[in-house]
Amino acid sequence: MPMTAWLLTLSEHDDLRREAMALLAADPRLTLGDRLGPGMSVIAETCSPDDDSDLWLAWLQTPGIVLADLVWSDFSDLEPGTYDAPAGRSPRRERNP
Amino acid sequence: MTVSEAAVPPVRRALQVGVAVALSASVVGFFAGIRPDEVPAAVALSRASPAAAGAVRPAPSYTDLRTRPARAPDPATAGVPAIEAQAFPAAPLPLPPQVLDPQPDRRAEAVALRAKLRAYDGAPPVVPHPVRQQGDLDCAACHVQGIAIGGRQLPRISHGFLTNCTQCHVPADGALPPGMASPEQVAGADGNTFVGSVGPVLGQRAWPGAPPTIPHPTHMRGECLSCHGPDGKVGMRSSHPWRISCRQCHAEGVDARPEGLPPWM
Amino acid sequence: MATSLERRTFLKTTALAAAASAAAARGWTPAQAAPAGVDPAVAARNPAGVQWNKAPCRFCGTGCHVQVGVENGRVVAIAGDQLAEVNKGLLCVKGYHVGLSLYGKDRLTQPLLRKNGVQVPVSWEEAIDVIARRIQKNPKGFAFYGSGQWTIPEGYAALKFTKGGLGSNHIDPNARLCMASAVTGFLSTYGVDEPAGCYDDLDKADVVMLWGNNPAEMHPVLFSRLIDRRTRGEKITLVDLTTRRTRSSDHAQHVLLFKPQTDLAVANGVMRELLKRGTWDKAFVDKHVAFRQDTADKPTLDGRAMDFAAFRAALEPYTPEHVEQLSGVNAADIRMLADLFGNPKLRIVSLWCMGMNQHTRGTAINRLVHALHLLSGHFGTPGNAPTSLTGQPSACGTVREVGTLAHALPGGRVVANDKHRAETEAIWNVPAGRIPAKPGYHTVQLWEKFSTPADKGGDIDTVWVQVTNPGQTLPNLGKLFQHRKAGGKFLIVSDVYPTATTREADLVLPSALWVEKNGMFGNSERRTQQWFKMVDPPGQARDDCWQTIAVAKRLFDLGFAGMRDKDGRFLFRVTDAKGAEVPAWKWERYYDVNVDKALFEEYRKFTPYKHKHLAPYDEYVKARGLRWPVVQQKNGTWRETRWRFSRFDDPFVSPDREVQFYHSLTKDDRAQVWFHPYEPPPESPDAQFPLWLCTGRVIEHWHSGTLTMRIPQLRRAMPQAYVEVNREDAARLGIGQGEVVVLETRRGRLELPAWIDGRGRPPQGSVFVPFFDEKVAINQLTLDAHDPISKQPDYKKCAVRLTKKAGGAA
Fold it and tell me: Rg of chain B over CA atoms, in angstroms?
């Protein structure tokens, strides 16, 4: 299971931020860290790199999350060859099946 | 209780405590109860609750939070929108035992290990590996953040970033290529009777469970995670290495101008 | 499974820590709770059981302040002093370990007198009596040899003892080997010694020129003060003008390798380019500068005037291309330097130390660097200064200011000047004519005379060495340190450890070291510093200053007239608060009164003459040093001076002048810009000795290593000397890494391991050897040729042959 650490910059609007926080807290894959200044650290444990990628895309579409920076990752559980990217997920992967 | 409370006005503190208890104990546990801005207005009104108006209940300690299950919601805050309650995991986070447990019984061992590389407590440590003799920024590659590789811990720099590392840190086994120095010349280093001051005693706790004070000077040792972070020596590690504003809770142990100091100091 | 879970939780902790530090890198931290009511300087120490006090570091001339932790009568810890302006809480590896220098197990603890060829323990009474009787027999055959490690009161006492007591000028310091050329450079340029700028310039400069200087190792605290500005986002252009790549080169944008001795050509090339382009500072030159050159026959300190046209014409041959030919520095780089010096918006500091001073043209290159700054107007404002660095803690304070030199008297006076002698005799209250007008022997002469039999003109028969190790540091040791062969000579050595010098001594006196005694030092930026005794010296070791006073008193008691003043009183009379004489010559009474303070207050009277005003002793007790001139304000406080000759800071500049060289050689408030041609060195590589030999220092060791080789951390880091060999040369000569090679010059031969691509990288055709290792006395190989004006020898260049050791491993 990949594990990633993120630094999220949250919105300055109270309502948007609260909504985002609720969303994050409801996600069982996430462990929330400290609130630091305008940001917050989050640890994500997902089933595959694609889930990570989806998570990131979802965050970018959440109005209460201004930025999502990946600061650390660990893919050491992933045995080589055990992960096959499903075809058609992204243009990059299509070029390199 | 944490030092952070001192920074919060009493009224807000009481409010905060009430809310924290009402919502979920673990909220406070993990986020240290510094979230008044996240509290909906309705909660502020709930200050009228008899429980809160009477004796303010003390905030739970970290130990409580880890060991005691979350309490049922306080009826006084029944009207609070559910999202905030949901927003925080009710159960305490699992924490790695080897880091969580500072293993105080191994502290002496850690202090001794640390002292091996230092002439006295506060001396810049010698470097227990060869050092490239040209250029300095090699050191930065490992020691700016600090890492653990193959059971070996490479501590992060304990002070602010300085460029000329070899100004203070010299290789313990010599700067010369292996085999170049004559053994007699190296052995000649053993004729010194200096006895350096030893590592600090433990910091003071105001009461059991209070954050201990810092028992050593912090000049050139202000980057606490260098020794107390996850890559620090067992026995010196913090139980909560993700908390990086150490001096929020841990005050310097010197509380007054010591007696007997000359007036010019 | 359990392992896997543990692993995940560990990973999670690491992830959290990574996120936290990423946040911290952005400054996303909750506000820090400052510890309430704690003075940060006090909080910096945790004095449970440890008493702390201040002292300047014992080692180099930077003058860092350290805090010394003492417990149960022993030094147990050292800390950088955060309140000290010089080092702002930082030290170097030597400074952090300076406390260990007291505790080498072979400390000298009793006087040793050579009897029948063997050094045997004797009492202090006997030792003092032996010296006094020897001096009484032939006072003019006695010479004092000291150093820039003498504290100010120690040096003052030795000077007064020799010049005031014995009526002799035979006193010289090892600083002659160290910064004499810097002194002559300052004197002949500004009419007064020592830098006009200070370390604050390092915080302001845009460009820093290193002239044959490696501060990353030798003045590391100053170097860090400079390059750490880059970490704060400031831009500094560092130009390393050098004969060998060093650790300082690693930080420099421009590393200009020049052939030894051709720094003169480089300086001339840059000046010519400024004149040609018209980018010299015409207004500054017009108002503040005169031109000067050597006299035709023999070089002197004062030289003779020249006009601007002649100056310009003299520089004309130094085209960038010609300079490239002479020096090996690209013509484009000469033009680049002219771009820098020709830009008035840039603030430029030049730093130098032994590279320019230990030079047979040392006075000349010092003058040329001053000239470059004056000509381009990079002078007199913060961040614009030519600043010499010193290697010893009180080379400035004691040698240069007190004047413990064969030709000097306190406060910038010289023996050759009738008025100066009269003033000195008046303050000492000794009869007129006590001090001879003829300078005594300078270092090289002194040791030559001491190594020569009396019947062959060797008229020095007794030398007293304090706080230095000439048996290792004199050049050409086989010629200059040979008194035992000469016969009838007597060498007295006061030291703290056995050294190459004590081994050859007839009388060894055990001395107190650093915080085992009171002291005062003066650093490279005119800062006078004070400390108090903190621990007792071991065994019978005693203060050098006490030793001098005790011998003076013994001479006095033996009826030696010189130790009496005009009123018949002892020359070193010290009184208590009530005016009663304290017998300071008795060791058990020495600390009844602060002898340092008494000597310093007397010395202070000499200092206003050259506007080197010092404050009363008690002001230094309160300060982390003060930079002279220190002048009393109307409100009674004492104000130090950071920039001399500039009105904005120097109280002695007229209110109507911006810059005023008030000690001008030409008495017209102008500084002298000198012309000096490039001249080849006295010895260059040839077919027989085909390589250049340069000697120098390393960061771990201080000078001859007497102290630092006894500090385990330093000795392990750098246990012995080596020869740095260029990779190409090594390949050509078939020399492998670590292989023992033979170094030979016309004067001596040594075996050393070769270090290829070591810490420093000498260019092809040159090698480098550090001089700290007494087992490898490199100065048996060096040249005793010296600068004609400063008399400082050249340790930085001579011709050497490098060969594989016969029978050594391939």
Answer: 24
pLDDT in tens, B6-43: 444 444 444 444 444 444 433 333 333 333 343 333 33
Q: CA-CA distance, C767 to C326, in Å (whole number)?
A: 20
Question: What's the CA gap between C438 and C170, in Å, rounded?
Answer: 10
Query: Which of C90, C152, C176, C173 lies closest to C527, judged by CA?
Result: C152
In this complex, which of A31, A41, A69 lies closest to C20 when CB atoms are compared?
Answer: A41
Alpha-carbon torsion, ordered C559, C560, C563, C569, to 10 deg = 30
Could you tell me which residue, B45 or C403, shows the higher pLDDT?
C403
Q: Could you give all domains of chain A from N- to C-terminal order, each with its CATH number?
A: 3-75 (3.30.70.260)
Which residues make Cβ contacts (< 8 Å) with residue C598, sequence separation at least 6? C574, C575
Concerning whether C179 is annotated as a catalytic residue, the answer is yes
Centroid of chain to Cα B97 = 16
Residue pair C511/C129 in contact by the 8 Å Cβ criterion = no
Residue of chain B with shortest Cα separation from A41:
B242
pLDDT, one tens digit per residue, over C629-676 is 999 999 999 999 999 999 999 999 999 999 999 999 999 999 999 999
The helix (H) or strand (E) run that includes residue C414 is strand C413-414
What pLDDT score was predicted for residue B111?
Answer: 85
* Secondary structure of residue C797 in the 3-state scheme: coil
Tokens found for residue C716 = 């392990």
Q: Give the pLDDT of residue C669.
A: 96
Chain B: closest CA distance from residue C254 (Å): 15
* Chain B residues near residue C45 by CB distance under 8 angstroms: 217, 254, 258
Which residue ranges make up each domain of chain B? 3-87, 95-176+197-254
Q: Give the mean model confidence (pLDDT) for residues C536-549.
A: 97
Contact present, C351 and C205 (Cβ < 8 Å)? no
- Are the beta carbons of A35 and B88 separated by less than 8 Å? no
Choose the mutation target among B31, B101, B161, B163 for the interface with C, i.e. most C CBs under 10 Å.
Answer: B163
Cα nearest neighbour of A21 on chain B: B87
Chain A interface includes C9 (CB < 8 A) = no
Model pLDDT, residue C274: 98
Alpha-helical segments (H) within C635-774 = 712-717, 727-733
Measured between CB atoms, which of C10, C52, C716 is closest to B186? C716
Strands (E), C649-710: 671-675, 691-696
CA distance B90 to chain A (A): 10
> Do A72 and C28 count as a contact with CB atoms less than 8 A apart?
no
Q: In the structure, what pLDDT confidence band is assigned to residue B249 with cuts at 50, 70 and 90? A: confident
C residues 198-217 closer than 8 Å to B (CB) = 216
Indicate the helix (H) or strand (E) that contains C265: helix C263-277
A26 closest CB neighbour out of B30, B86, B243:
B86
Tell me the C-alpha distance between C311 and C103, whole Å. 56
ipTM: 0.82
Q: Nearest Cα to C192, choosing from C352, C368, C413?
A: C413
Domains and their CATH numbers in chain C: 40-102 (3.30.200.210), 112-178+403-593 (3.40.50.740), 180-388 (3.40.228.10), 691-804 (2.40.40.20)
Range in B96-105, B198-207, C81-90, C754-763 with the lowest mean pLDDT:
B96-105
Cα Rg, chain C, nearest whole Å: 27
Burial C415-438, CB ≥16 within 10 A → b, else e: beeeebbebbbebbebeeebbbee
Pairing of strands C304-306, C289-293: antiparallel
* Inter-residue contact A90 to A26 (CB < 8 Å): no
Dihedral angle at the C-alpha atoms of B4, B6, B9, B12, nearest 10 degrees?
40
- For residue C433, which of C616, C637, C164, C668 has the smallest C-alpha distance? C164
